[in-house]
Amino acid sequence: MLTNILSFFRDNDKLLLHSLLYTTTITLSALVISRYFKSRSWSKLKASPFYKPMEGKVCIITGANSGIGYETAKELAKLKATVVLGCRSMIRGQEALEKLKKEVQDGQIVLMELNLASFDSIKNFAKNVMKQYPKIHVLINNAGVSVPIKEKLTTKEGYEVHFGINHVGHFLLTNLLIERIQKSSTDMEQTKVVIVGSSLMDRGTIDFDNLNGEKGFVQKGHSNPAYCNSKLMNYYFGAELYLKYADKGVDVSVVCPGWCYTNLFRHANIKFYQKVMIFPIAMMYMRSANQGAQSVVHCAISPNQTKHFPPIFRDFAPYIPKHEYNDEVSKKLWDVTAKLTSIQ
């Protein structure tokens, strides 16, 4: 009797194991096939009619030593543009420079120090760039941070780190360079400012009484509220910059590169069981840094032919965020930030 019972369970275990292996194989195969077709929409850069050599064009990229910034620099260097890497750490920047020169042997790539958490560093960077390059054709505001809000990090000027680096630092840098960028445009070709944003802007808010986190932040779910707020500010900064300069020869784009695995995840405390739970979603939607950079480079080389406004893009096409654009918020954020940075 006991032997029969044990045999029953052994036989059923085999059946269960076979069923589990079969189901797992089918599921993984379906995910791989689905990802293959979906990822094709992320990697269409070379199919663009604007994917052409860029000899003589100067392109500046912030945060270019890793992730999307590094991959963006590599793609532009392949097009023979002169690429300026703006990096906070000169050690990591030098490592990135050496790696890039091995991957793109005939690329014109230059490293310069840029710490977006310091107004002095930003001003020195802008001064050095303009001294070395009479023309600037593309500025890509890529650098960004996402750190736990409980750490309460600030910039040199005392601004909350997400607000200070992701928004204020790039605002100052862009305005210091914008006249040179504008003068580098021609009747035949506009110059470009590309701001790397995120669809996480839809989870952000702009509270003018709490821009610097004076009242703290409310954590909802796993999203970093300060980071989401800064991405919403990127969106409004891009929109206002577009309104001010689109008719003066400067095309402005805000681009969401999608959900990419980059160094932004280095502070994420993701537990093992959470990784298991999100694995199927990651298989479908998570992009490599290079796949994310494709949309960034596309915005850097392609004109906004449809005059899409607000000028935000994703996957090589205009993107309609859930957040409803507010003209008053856009203008006020510009004025407040201009005052903080002493920009006229």
TrEMBL record:
The chain crosses the membrane at residues 20-37. Keywords: Membrane, Oxidoreductase, Transmembrane, Transmembrane helix. Pfam families: adh_short (PF00106). It comes from the Eukaryota. GO terms for molecular function: oxidoreductase activity. InterPro entries: NAD(P)-bd_dom_sf, SDR_fam. This is Retinol dehydrogenase 12-like isoform X1. The lineage of its organism: Eukaryota, Metazoa, Ecdysozoa, Arthropoda, Hexapoda.
